[in-house]
Design brief:
480 residues; 3 domains; FAD/NAD(P)-binding domain; Enolase-like, domain 1; alpha/beta; 7-stranded mixed beta sheet
């Protein structure tokens, strides 16, 4: 086979890889995009978009069942599982189609369908033995599901995010292993669509919530809808002719064996780098086999290799992958002029109900970097006016500020409209606003954001900047 010679080779055509291709192509026309699997990003095919389609159906069913407190009567609510999944698949395929149109617009000579591995730091070899000589290389191979040992004996009845959205209809009973972001989103959605769900976790974590009080609040709230044991003891998981038998210690005591149609493994994802032959590059690797890299340039050591997206194991979120692809591809294209790229304020949202959001400096980082130099403002949404009007009055918000400077540092939230409040707070953090300047911003009445103002006022007082929070502040309107 004739070897290929290019300036930049990009391994992986997901969100990060496509972003890297665009950025590198702005610097040089000699760019090759290599994909060994299906085109169409993780987000579009098996991630954020199909999961949100399922969640939207679940929200519709949940709202229909819970209108009586408003004085509204709705009779005969049924869920057509086949119709739910058909819409998920139809709309998912539409989103994937948009991605494929973008891929098709790339000149055929600039893309290659092949699985590759490193022969050395500047040479890739395909599964058919073709050599690709590249002066610079971007690794954007994404991630793959991780299975715990207790699930490795399963086959036909094992689901991951890679295949759950291909089900012809909804299952009757589903065991979810892993109460992380994906596990909690899908578990609650399935439960609200009428599936009997049990969620098993290890270590007590729930959807990456760091604050213990917020985590306890979330645990109690979710357990009001479905079984959740974030610190479960599971003795065995065995596939049967008709489903899966799970032997576990019930959280209130006593060992039980229950049968489920399927097990969903939502136990995390790992960088998909094992088959790349990275040992042949001479790069220094971490314990997971990922090259060490500079977070601002995405350069691996002092090499001509860059890494972006989920493959870096840094921040596995679409907007982060897009930023990383842009930075890595731009630097690969303009090398040796390697530049630091803009890394935005951390922002993560979990689309459960109530939603979960984290912004900026998290609690662990606060205790490491700002020990004894920060304060925490708190608000409960249980009596917040607009939230109570809509019967969405569950949750807590905690906001963090630096003593002395009054700088807003970050927040964590479990509550209504967290996806929107999280964005407001991320913008404030990126603009390096103080708590005082945030409180000078307009707050309409009645809106959920008034709860944010209450939390900021509490924080302002604890930073010794403002007065104590006035209970039932009528200047703000009733229930603010």
């Amino acid at each position: 086979m004739t070897p290929l010679h290019v300036e930049v080779a990009i391994i992986g055509a997901g969100t990060a890889g496509m972003g890297a291709y665009r950025a590198a192509s702005a610097q040089t026309k000699s760019v090759l995009l290599i994909e060994g699997g299906s085109y169409g990003t993780t987000c579009a095919r098996v991630g954020c978009m199909p999961s949100k389609l399922l969640i939207a159906a679940a929200e519709a069913a949940h709202q229909a069942r819970h209108v009586e407190p408003f004085g509204v009567q709705v009779q005969g609510i049924t869920v057509d599982g086949a119709a739910v999944m058909a819409r998920v698949q139809r709309e998912r395929d539409r989103f994937v189609g948009f991605v494929l149109e973008t891929v098709d617009a790339i000149a055929p000579g600039n893309r290659l369908t092949a699985t590759v591995r490193f022969q050395d730091a500047n040479t890739l070899v395909t599964e058919h033995g073709q050599l690709i000589h590249a002066k610079r290389i971007v690794i954007a191979t994404g991630s793959i599901p991780v299975l715990p040992p207790v699930l490795k004996g399963l086959s036909a009845r094992l689901l991951t995010n890679e295949n759950i959205f291909d089900l012809a209809t909804l299952p009757t009973r589903l065991a979810v292993f892993g109460p992380g972001v994906l596990g909690m989103e899908l578990a609650q959605a399935m439960s609200r669509l009428g599936v009997q769900v049990k969620v098993f976790g290890v270590g007590g974590g729930i959807a990456a919530i760091q604050d213990p009080a917020i985590r306890d609040y979330a645990n109690k709230t979710f357990n009001g809808e479905f079984y959740l044991d974030a610190s479960a003891q599971v003795k065995s998981v065995r596939e049967t002719a008709t489903g899966v038998a799970v032997n576990y210690l019930h959280r209130v005591g006593g060992w039980k064996t229950e049968r489920f149609d399927y097990v969903l493994a939502a136990t995390g994802r790992a960088p998909d780098v094992a088959g790349l032959g990275l040992k042949n590059t001479g790069l220094q690797l971490d314990k997971r086999g990922v090259p060490l890299f500079d977070r601002t340039t995405l350069q691996c050591g002092h090499s001509t290799i860059f890494i972006a997206g989920d493959a870096s194991n840094d921040a596995p979120l679409l907007h982060e992958a897009a930023d990383q692809g842009r930075i890595a591809g731009g630097n690969a294209g303009r090398y040796p002029d390697v530049q630091s790229g803009l890394r935005r304020t951390p922002l993560a949202v979990v689309f459960t109900d109530p939603q979960i959001a984290s912004v900026g400096v998290n609690l662990k980082q606060l205790n490491e970097r700002f020990k004894d130099r920060f304060a925490v403002g708190v608000v409960s949404f249980e009596d917040q006016g607009r939230s109570r009007v809509m019967l969405r009055n569950q949750g807590l918000l905690k906001v963090y500020g630096e003593q002395g400077s009054g700088l807003f540092l970050g927040a964590e939230m479990f509550g209504p409209a967290a996806e929107h409040i999280g964005h407001l707070l991320a913008w404030a953090a990126q603009q390096r606003m103080t708590v005082s300047s945030m409180l000078e911003m307009p707050f309409y009445h009645p809106v959920i954001e008034e709860g944010l103002r209450t939390a900021l006022r509490d924080l302002s007082h604890k930073l010794h900047i403002g007065p104590p929070v006035i209970e039932r502040c009528m200047d703000c309107g009733p229930g603010a």
